[in-house]
Amino acid sequence: MDFGLTGEQLQLADAERSWLGRHDPITRVRAALDSAPITIDPAAVAHAAESGLLALLTPDAGGTHLDLAVLSEIHGSAASSLPLADLVIGAWLLAEAGLPEANPAGDGDLLVGLARGQLATTSGSTVRLRGTTSAVPMAADMARFAVVGLTDDGAEYLAVVRDPERIVMSTLDLTRSWTRLRLNESVETWARLPVGTISKVRDALAVHRALDALGGAARLLDLTVSYAGQREQFGAPIGSFQAVKHHCADMAVGVEAGRSALWAAAMALDGAPSNARSRAASAGAAYAKSAASRVAGTALQVHGGIGFTWEHDLHLFLRRIKVDQAFDGTVAEHRAALVAT
After folding, report:
1. Single pTM value for the model
2. Which positions are tagged coiled coil (predicted)?
3. Are the C-beta atoms of 113 and 143 separated by less than 8 Å?
4. Helix, strand or coil, per DSSP, at residue 30
5. Closest Cα to residue 231, out of 253, 248, 217?
6. Tens of pLDDT along 46-98?
7. Structural domains in the chain, sorted by start
8. 284: helix, coil or strand?
9. What 3-state DSSP class applies to 262?
């Protein structure tokens, strides 16, 4: 199988990397750490909308999950607070369902969060939603949410909910906020989904959450290699020591192998049979999340004392990777899914 990116995908990656480099998300995180909750950069929202990224997977745009995979990793490597993959998948669902809410009412209505809900009850033209949803990144910045789940008659649904009650979660992640939605309302804007859609959404979120972690790991690899070339002990850069070389090599193997596994999973999302798609998603997510966590731990070890300080960016990526590892399927859960199929 060819895992190489196309010329267009490489250009997409370069353009997004360049934009994030000019609008460094970590600078915004640092500015808010001691004073206010982190928010999505309005410039990032405008950029994603104007460049068509939010509609990447819709039929009109014709993008693929491999295109989105490139962007998910880059946003992870920049510690971006914009949950691009969740937004893109949510927009795809709305377009697929043909809901009028697919078209935003204005600039302040561009972002649609994505959540997996509990069992819903249908009654005529409405669907009754109850219970709490899965965790939603940056939900405080969003007015409406696409909620997917099962109805009491076994059908799959997509409902659009405006301004639900939010349960703010306390997590290690300082670069994003995480929230669960508490639902207890009847919704008229909803549609039945084709069988298997929820499974595809679950697989897609697993893959792109792992790609976010992989992006953070790739950034930590770069930081660690750079630090090892500058930090000296006994009159020589620590990067010249065999043990440190082995550490950096192990980190590089984890990042590259994780990237290959997730590219394969992203390609499976774009058209593989459901069973093969789910296996590829679980295999990629399990390996990449585990590898990213190991890379983060090794980066901390190689950096030594400076890596434990609040001022160094290392802890921001380590925290983000750990939270990515916990949501949308842990390593143990994905491994268990592989064994069961």
Report:
1. 0.95
2. none
3. no
4. helix
5. 248
6. 999 999 999 999 998 999 999 999 999 999 999 999 999 999 999 999 998 98
7. 7-192 (2.40.110.10), 197-339 (1.20.140.10)
8. helix
9. helix
